[in-house]
Design brief:
By secondary structure, this protein is mainly alpha-helical. The chain has one domain. It has 16 helices and no strands. Helix 8 crosses helix 9.
Length: about 325
């Protein structure tokens, strides 16, 4: 949804198309933080040696990352393939500049490598210590981001990799293993709803002021996104323990492949050839229909391809 609505929020600020894109984008920014929180919830309580983590988890991410980075590097120069450079490919792998969605895999790899530190902290630290780390991580990350954006200065970076995203990782485990009073849970949901509204309206106000799209409220480590993510996580925790549907199981089984493949599919469905063939584009189609149509066909195609790749032993480990 985020990658689909990105085309809409590049339209004229305040237009109907822009507002649809802004609402969709703002309303789905919780997804990545919640995925990281779920990873922390599921992994930090497991009794695994670091060797097992390296062998089972890092390896399962590293090879798909390298393979799909290679595929996307070829895709980038598909119209001028003779300019392809393997040396440039390796440089871009280290720079994380091949495709916009790979950053998440780099973050997860880093968190996996830091898992012994998080586990040690959980086992030996008090809950007060964990809460202090969580407050510090989100406050520093959000403050750095906000100050940089509002005052247009570049502050020293790097906090987000251990503090910010590490905070989400640890927060998932903490919330899953902590019983909150109903009043606190209700307050979090109110703050989550308020944060979502601030993201929508704040993006409009800032974008109008500077004359171009401001993404400060969209950031995963902004002052607003964590509240929305925590609210969604608690909703899933409190109400999501019912019997899992077959559709949910199907999507879960192929979700990694969907994530890896979907930008390539979006490129196809947003290409000049596809627009000429179908007439579906972000400039000519009603924005609500555009989001629904592109999401449906891109998701379905990515799911189908992931399913097919999982059927062959040679490609199963790549999705």
């Amino acid at each position: 949804m985020i990658h689909i609505s990105a085309r809409l929020v590049r339209q004229e600020i305040g237009s109907f198309e822009w507002w649809i894109g802004n609402i969709v984008d703002s309303s789905t920014r919780w997804a990545v933080p919640v995925f990281i929180m779920l990873s922390g919830m599921l992994l930090l309580g497991k009794q695994e040696s670091q060797l097992d983590v390296l062998r089972k988890r890092v390896g399962k991410l590293l090879w798909p990352l390298l393979f799909w980075s290679f595929i996307y590097s070829l895709w980038k120069v598909r119209h001028d393939i003779e300019t392809y450079s393997f040396r440039q490919f390796m440089i871009e792998v280290f720079q994380d500049s091949i495709k916009y969605h790979f950053w998440y895999l780099y973050v997860i790899l880093g968190l996996y490598l830091c898992m012994p530190l998080f586990k040690m902290f959980i086992q030996n630290g008090r809950k007060e210590d964990i809460r202090y780390f969580l407050f510090l991580s989100f406050f520093i990350s959000a403050s750095t981001l906000t100050i940089s954006s509002f005052f247009e200065i570049n502050l020293a970076g790097g906090f987000e990799y251990l503090l910010g995203y590490g905070g989400y990782f640890l927060l998932g485990y903490y919330l899953a293993n902590t019983t909150l009073a109903r009043k606190k849970t209700s307050l979090i949901h109110i703050l989550g709803a308020a944060a979502l509204l601030i993201t929508i309206v704040g993006t409009w106000l800032l974008s109008t002021r500077i004359g171009t799209l401001s993404q400060v409220f969209y950031e995963y480590l902004s002052f607003t996104t964590p509240f929305v993510a925590i609210s969604i996580f608690l909703l899933v925790k409190d109400w999501g323990n019912k019997e899992t549907s077959k559709a949910t199981v199907l999507i879960a089984n192929y979700s990694f492949g969907i994530y890896l493949i979907h930008p390539l599919i979006l490129d196809i469905y947003r290409s000049k050839e596809f627009i000429q063939l179908t007439g579906i584009s972000h400039t000519t189609t009603h924005p609500v229909l555009y989001v629904l149509i592109i999401f449906t066909i891109a998701f379905s195609t990515s799911l189908f391809l992931s399913y097919i790749l999982c059927k062959f032993p040679a490609t199963k480990k790549l999705v």
